[in-house]
């Protein structure tokens, strides 16, 4: 990747700004004891550095999209994967998601298919409210989590 700055005070001819992008999705529970395998969305179906590597053996779930953005089909796949993962552990979770266009309604699915999610409650929250809600939730839950960690029973 070429540098985006030089010591020159004038524009460098023949250099375009690099537009390589990735999207990374990370998941962890409130106490940090249960971490999910990251999801990485790149713009190449098979990146050149990984040409001789089995993508299934990487410690991430890799998907491709021309702009390396989350879309509804990838998001639906992630929801189904999470549901399967938590069903195997017999755990129920609450998933709070903002209302970005790629965040599909869990009942509708992504167009033709209906998602059958049994292991979590899925709430779509408007983006303006979402940021304030996350701040309030962290303020409210922090003492409860600290108390639970200090005295688990």
Helix content: 25-40%
The helix-and-strand class reads alpha/beta
Strand line-up across the major sheet: 1-2-3
Gyration radius from CA atoms, angstroms: 20 Å
Low-pLDDT stretches:
none
DSSP helix count?
Answer: 2
Can you tell me the number of structural domains?
1
Beta strands, count:
5
Shape estimate? extended
The major β-sheet equals: 3 strands, mixed
Give the mean pLDDT: 76
Could you tell me the strand content as a percent range? 15-25%
Protein model, in words:
The protein is an alpha/beta fold. The chain has one domain. The chain is 27% helix and 15% strand. The protein has a 3-stranded mixed β-sheet with strand order 1-2-3, with no helix packed on it. A two-stranded parallel sheet has the order 4-5. It is extended. 7% of the residues are buried. The mean pLDDT is 76.
List keywords for this structure.
153 residues, alpha/beta, 3-stranded mixed sheet, two-stranded parallel ribbon, 27% helix
Protein topology:
Blueprint: E1 23-25, E2 39-42, E3 61-64, H1 72-89, E4 93-98, E5 120-125, H2 127-150
Parallel strand pairs: 2-3, 4-5
Antiparallel strand pairs: 1-2
Compose a concise summary of this entry:
The protein has helices at residues 72-89, 127-150; strands spanning 23-25, 39-42, 61-64, 93-98, 120-125.
């Amino acid at each position: 990747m070429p540098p985006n700055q030089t010591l020159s005070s004038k524009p460098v001819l023949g250099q375009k700004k690099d537009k390589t992008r990735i999207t990374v999705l990370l998941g962890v529970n409130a106490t940090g004891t249960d971490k999910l395998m990251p999801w990485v969305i790149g713009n190449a179906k098979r990146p050149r550095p990984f040409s001789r590597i089995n993508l299934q053996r990487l410690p991430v779930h890799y998907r491709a999209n021309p702009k390396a953005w989350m879309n509804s089909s990838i998001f639906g796949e992630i929801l189904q994967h999470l549901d399967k993962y938590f069903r195997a552990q017999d755990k129920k979770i609450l998933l709070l998601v903002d209302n970005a266009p790629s965040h599909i309604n869990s009942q509708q699915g992504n167009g033709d298919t209906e998602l059958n999610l049994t292991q979590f409650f899925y709430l779509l929250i408007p983006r303006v409210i979402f940021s304030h809600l996350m701040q309030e939730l962290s303020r409210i839950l922090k003492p409860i989590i600290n108390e639970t960690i200090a005295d688990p029973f």
